[in-house]
Amino acid sequence: MAVLLLAEVMGDDLSVDSTAKALTAAAQLGDVTVLVAGGNAAAAAAEAAKLTGASAVIAVSDASLANGLAEPLAALVVSMAGDFEHIVAPSTATGKNVMPRVAALLDVMVISDVMTIVDGDTFERPIYAGNAIQTVKSADAKKVMTIRTAGFDAAGEGGSAAVSDGAAADNPGLSEWVEDKVEESDRPDLTSAKIVVSGGRGVGSEENFAIIEKLADKLGAAVGASRAAVDSGYAPNDWQVGQTGKVVAPELYIAVGISGAIQHLAGMKDSKIIVAINKDEEAPIFQVADYGLVADLFDAVPELEGKLG
Amino acid sequence: MKVLVPVKRVIDYNVKVRVKADGSGVDLANVKMSMNPFDEIAVEEAIRLKEKGVADEVVAVSIGVKQSQETLRTALAMGADRAILVIAADDVHQDIEPLAVAKILKAVIDEEAPGLVIAGKQAIDNDMNATGQMLSALLGWSQATFASEVNVDGDSAVVTREVDGGLQTIKVKMPAIITADLRLNEPRYASLPNIMKAKKKPLDEKTAADYGVDVSPRLSVVKTTEPAERAAGIKVGSVDELVAKLKAEVL
């Protein structure tokens, strides 16, 4: 069975990690052709050709594809869909933007955030922010899906797939790119950080959040916050971890002054190691923490910061 | 300009989800249901466009069970002008797939002819993140997903989108489909007088069959299970002990 994988491209570069992880998933379904689309896709296509498990690479370079706009990219994928039973992309912002559009144009359902491939028609995916896992079986002739990259190891670099050039589809001309603003923080991005330090309502004020930030900076970590902290105005909206915020799964998650409301747990419970610091020993966060410290955060966090590194 | 806002009735975000013992799904009997949080943000944005004089009418649409009219009343209490309920399921456990929802919405839009649709970026129950994109595809309209800022200017809209690692600004032709992300705004609470007034606002009731849309699912649910439980952790007695554990394991 043939699989078309839409590679993740940023600027003219291949996003190797997400593409390689989605490739591992795609290779479980059949022979994988990697579609690399961009303003100038040649270099990214050459990178993709090195990935183990890629049988062929199609490079499509066109100005309309330079910024990942949904309409021209979806039109391109649909124009190539004919030979493929599975059409997959990593579950990135671009993949989530484009693949449902592709699915609707093909009159099939999209299967979002696939975490396990059971067989060619059957997949596991998280629902309710990971509080339940659903196994679904598709009745559609073509399966259009996004891959939750956290669930798959990255394919290695030992391949040498042939690269051919493809042509862009007609650009519907519905939208145009204005600008990209990459976050200028020195801290890592919350969703891809290896370590996250989050504060909750227990932190008490916006000023007090400085001790959370200080610990994070010591660890080279991203800063997160619970919804309660955001709603209280202690932390900005984009720091929110939880069901309605960002879902994170770092190597280490340190929850400070966070009680562990369901909505917060949904956003961080897939973290590898969870540390909780809270003065209330009954706080539900301790039920998911690998290491719990019952202590006043205003004593414990500065002490921790001082003793680390 | 008329703005159409689809809203979904989902389990309240503060309710603990329980998987049914027989693996058939999540138990939704006798649990608190609310408007999908991202849809609240979409409703708020539409109302703000009306307050700014950009929009002149806000129409809320919900597709699902009959009880979704409560969700529509919430939208009306927030400030939507009228509502359309499309009954497509009898049982609250029957989730209507985004593709079917998009087809029904397309039919509603063909009748209503709005200039803009603002939807939530995803529903917190099935987490599909698909309806807006699918609707946009079916209509052949532009799409601006995961919006954190929207500026409508005549026949186009400039939308800032939350993407991996930053923000992207795009300009889309109207009519457009915009999906709301968390940072777009903070939705208002409905005041008691507005809740009372909302009871008198028009709410039309239709069915999926009225629009000739087949809502049978393309994905059958084989089973629903609890995620793997985390192994129980330990309490450490001091910061020193915690530092030792962290140094041994991760740092």
UniProtKB/TrEMBL annotation, chain A:
What does the entry comment about cofactor binding?
Binds 1 FAD per dimer.
Any one GO MF term held by the record is:
flavin adenine dinucleotide binding
Give a single Pfam family match. ETF
Superkingdom, natural source: Bacteria
Q: Which biological process terms from the Gene Ontology are attached to this UniProt entry?
A: fatty acid beta-oxidation using acyl-CoA dehydrogenase
What keywords does the record list, in alphabetical order? Answer: Electron transport, FAD, Flavoprotein, Transport
**What are the residue boundaries of the Electron transfer flavoprotein alpha/beta-subunit N-terminal domain, all occurrences included?**
3-181
Binding-site residues for FAD, renumbered to this chain:
201, 226-227, 240-244, 257-264, 278
Q: Which cofactor does it need?
A: FAD
Q: What does this protein do?
A: The electron transfer flavoprotein serves as a specific electron acceptor for other dehydrogenases. It transfers the electrons to the main respiratory chain via ETF-ubiquinone oxidoreductase (ETF dehydrogenase).
Q: Which family does it belong to?
A: Belongs to the ETF alpha-subunit/FixB family.
Q: What is the name of this protein? A: Electron transfer flavoprotein subunit alpha
Originating species: Rubricella aquisinus
UniProtKB/TrEMBL annotation, chain B:
Q: Tell me the ranges covered by the Electron transfer flavoprotein alpha/beta-subunit N-terminal domain, including all copies.
A: 23-215
Q: Which GO terms describe its biological process?
A: carboxylic acid catabolic process
Q: Which cofactor does it need?
A: AMP
Q: Which Gene3D superfamilies match?
A: HUPs (3.40.50.620)
Instruction: State a single Gene Ontology molecular function.
Output: electron transfer activity
Q: Which UniProt keywords apply?
A: Electron transport, Transport
Coiled coil region boundaries:
none
Q: What does this protein do?
A: The electron transfer flavoprotein serves as a specific electron acceptor for other dehydrogenases. It transfers the electrons to the main respiratory chain via ETF-ubiquinone oxidoreductase (ETF dehydrogenase).
Q: How does it assemble?
A: Heterodimer of an alpha and a beta subunit.
- Give the family per the record: Belongs to the ETF beta-subunit/FixA family.
- Do you know which PANTHER family this protein is assigned to? ELECTRON TRANSFER FLAVOPROTEIN BETA-SUBUNIT, ELECTRON TRANSFER FLAVOPROTEIN SUBUNIT BETA
- This chain belongs to the protein called Electron transfer flavoprotein subunit beta
Q: Which organism is it from?
A: Rubricella aquisinus
Give the source lineage, highest ranks first: Bacteria, Pseudomonadati, Pseudomonadota, Alphaproteobacteria, Rhodobacterales
